[in-house]
């Protein structure tokens, strides 16, 4: 039976019983997201193989996979299976602080992932224990933090909140400029 192992967020390995040999034919492998039949791909696989790794897949997606033995000796029924890739749980890998002024700065982060429902931006002066929270929609990758004290170092933490409920965070330090004197 056709089945999958080593499933990750972007790949899986397919295994199947040895039905063909190098000489008796090849396999047609068809696969694609169940929800989007138009995106099915077909590839030819040597009859000598009994496994293949499919990669460049979308995370948290159910794939329909069909293996069709194209034999010139016997008829073998197509084998099919469904495989769901794992959710992508990548933390923000970069937090950038820009456009720093006396009372505000911009926080931006990357990458932006479809699997993120929203971001939380926590910020507070160092040293200190007062923390403000900004909620940012998962489609956005930057926000402006305002009403800050001049010439102050802030700790900024960006937390990605995944649709699966998991959270991943990354922190950076930001300094506001000195204010206008007088």
TrEMBL record:
Keywords: Glycoprotein, Repeat, Secreted, Signal. InterPro entries: ECM_Regulatory_Proteins, FN3_dom, FN3_sf, Ig-like_fold. CDD domains: FN3 (cd00063). GO terms for cellular component: extracellular region. The keyword Signal applies. Residues 1-89, 91-179 form the Fibronectin type-III domain. It is found in: Secreted, Extracellular space. This is VWA1 protein. It comes from Toxostoma redivivum (California thrasher).
């Amino acid at each position: 039976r056709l089945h999958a192992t080593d499933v990750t967020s972007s790949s899986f390995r397919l295994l199947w019983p040895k039905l063909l040999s190098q000489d008796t034919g090849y396999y047609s492998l068809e696969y694609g997201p169940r929800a989007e039949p138009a995106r099915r791909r077909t590839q030819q696989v040597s009859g000598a193989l009994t496994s293949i790794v499919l990669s460049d897949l979308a995370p948290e997606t159910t794939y329909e996979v069909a293996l069709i033995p194209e034999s010139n000796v016997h008829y073998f029924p197509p084998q099919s299976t469904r495989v769901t890739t794992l959710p992508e749980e990548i933390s923000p890998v970069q937090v950038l602080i820009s456009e720093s002024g006396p009372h505000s700065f911009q926080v931006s982060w990357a990458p932006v992932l479809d699997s993120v429902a929203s971001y939380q931006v926590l910020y507070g002066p160092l040293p200190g224990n007062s923390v403000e929270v900004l909620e940012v929609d998962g489609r956005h990758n930057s926000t402006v933090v305002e009403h800050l004290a001049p010439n102050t170092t802030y700790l900024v933490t960006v937390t990605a909140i995944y649709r699966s409920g998991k959270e991943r965070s990354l922190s950076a330090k930001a300094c506001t400029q000195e204010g206008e004197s007088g």
